[in-house]
């Protein structure tokens, strides 16, 4: 609902009407997550009301800029940021416990190269990111909405991909990952016909897991059970 407020930022989670790719869960933050939020949101949190960011001013330097959409509990994002201190990372997640968990990771690891939004990624794209400002966009394990009648809720759709394209610099990368084969086929169909993108793999194939994408505990459990994981890495060409 567009009028649902975040008690810390006092902003609606989303301004968009119609079909959504997410359902807001009412999970509670742990005490540690709450305290991390209170301490670190003022420094690392970003709001829709901030308007268009200027990355150099935001991070105090010129560096490779990554955006992760739907970072869950934030461990993978924190791991990537810790492994690449020369790069900057912006995370977007609508669920407060996940944001609290990421802020706790930021504190525990002493990270300086992370900023976070607690709003709909569509609003971040539309109101907060300048065109050609990103070097990489990552969408790892989005909700597969596996029932056919729910496929329209899937985040990766042609219109969404084109809006992302304008935020990537030419040569920038869109990296998608899923553990649902049907969704991987949907993603590949969308990306293979997307204007201004080219597959980085020959013969329009899926990509091996890039070394800098951490393996999550959930992914490890799935791999142990023989489940597949599909990575797609496409580059903006124009």
UniProtKB/TrEMBL annotation:
InterPro entries, per database record: SAM-dependent_MTases_sf, tRNA_(Gua-N-7)_MeTrfase_Trmb, tRNA_methyltr_TrmB_bact
Assigned EC number: 2.1.1.33
Keyword Flavoprotein in record: no
One Pfam assignment: Methyltransf_4
Known pathway: tRNA modification; N(7)-methylguanine-tRNA biosynthesis
Keyword S-adenosyl-L-methionine: yes
Residues that, per the record, bind S-adenosyl-L-methionine: 68, 93, 120, 143
Keywords: Methyltransferase, S-adenosyl-L-methionine, Transferase, tRNA processing
Highest rank taxon of the organism: Bacteria
Reactions catalysed: guanosine(46) in tRNA + S-adenosyl-L-methionine = N(7)-methylguanosine(46) in tRNA + S-adenosyl-L-homocysteine
PROSITE patterns: SAM_MT_TRMB (PS51625)
Residues bound to substrate: 147, 179, 216-219
Root EC class: transferase
GO molecular function, a single term: tRNA (guanine(46)-N7)-methyltransferase activity
Cellular compartments per GO CC: tRNA methyltransferase complex
Coiled-coil features, chain-numbered ranges: none
UniProt record similarity statement: Belongs to the class I-like SAM-binding methyltransferase superfamily. TrmB family.
Entry function: Catalyzes the formation of N(7)-methylguanine at position 46 (m7G46) in tRNA.
The protein, known as: tRNA (guanine-N(7)-)-methyltransferase
UniProt organism field: Tamilnaduibacter salinus
Gene that encodes it: trmB
